[in-house]
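Example 4.3 (complexes with small molecules)
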Amino acid sequence: MDRSGKPRVVLGVSGGIAAYKACELLRRLTESGHDVRVVPTGSALRFVGEPTWAALSGNPVTTGVWEDVHEVPHVRIGQEADLVVVAPATADTLARAAHGLADDLLTNTLLTARCPVVFAPAMHTEMWEHPATAENVATLRRRGAVVIEPAVGRLTGKDTGKGRLPDPGEIFEVCRRVLARGAAAGRDLAGRHVVISAGGTREPLDPVRFLGNRSSGRQGYALARTAVARGARVTLVAANTALPDPAGADVVPVGTAVQLREAVLKAAEDADAVVMAAAVADFRPARYAQGKIKKREGREPEPVDLVRNPDVLAELSAARPRPGQVVVGFAAETDDVLANGRAKLARKGCDLLVVNEVGEDKTFGAEENEAVVLGADGSETHVPHGPKEALADTVWDAVVHMLNAG
Ligand code: CTP
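Answer. The structure with cytidine-5'-triphosphate bound is encoded below.
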């Protein structure tokens, strides 16, 4: 904290074209009450100049260890920080950090920091996938840093692939959560792969119509964000959501229950935990009309026949593709919430079931949630009305407990 009680954040910027996006991250950090010290590398300054960082942060900006030496900045900045975030982190910066080099102010700061450290890498796909980078990332993660998986999309030039810096607003969300969780112990999902389904499936009737539901995907996205901040590798199977991709999550978009099943089962093969937060349609139209269904004057509409969809949660719970895998279900109930929840937990065979009461204006699409987390061992954790992130953290607490016990 600085003298006015603001958390101190060091924003390390390394030399990639995505450096301009760090300006937006810096704004978010300062506007939300953080005291930010920007430490760019020499090559970062070739992309965005010192005056920009100084003006946006309101703090002096230094790159080398030979400026303001009387203040011993190469030690002090790291020691005093509550969080260090490096965005973008280039392959070179990751390598220097992993090897403990100290050839500029940023790497010195990384060596003296005792606070949580977040890296948001951005580079071309080939560099990200190179075994050297992969090993450096694994080293940094093993030491407790959060290394956010890059996003997939347009890269510099004409290339498209994995390596994009995630949306600055989403990197900010990771920083906020990592700061809130504090010490490295907060990264209790490090080395774990978790799969989350989110949103609601749509079952097509014809090229323009579908049977759907009102799930927004917010709870699943909150689970993904919190899992990233706790150090997990996250696969988010997203059914018809309209939310920004959470930084660090591999997002697999799907439409129908059958597509969702395929994506979840594939990702679950090496997953430590699977959380089924999606609202999966139990039924789908038996027939899909190739052309739009038209109304016919003077005639009643044809009835819509439905067939059962696979129950992904029950299938996963029975199969457990990986030994010790924890499977979590969600249940939306309108009445007799706890009794129905217990019965559903037993019927589906999962380890945990998050039960919430739904109605016209409750839960669906809302920012807040209230729920009970039921355990197959008889446990019952009530989560008071609050942000969906709080419920997500309670779910991960229970998952971590089970993974560590197993
Ligand atoms: N689920 C699933 N596959 C389905 C339906 C649901 O995997 N075809 C999962 C959801 O993702 C959720 C849980 O099962 O985690 C509860 O779904 P819900 O529809 O509430 O349960 P049902 O067994 O369908 O019970 P109900 O009779 O209340 O509809």
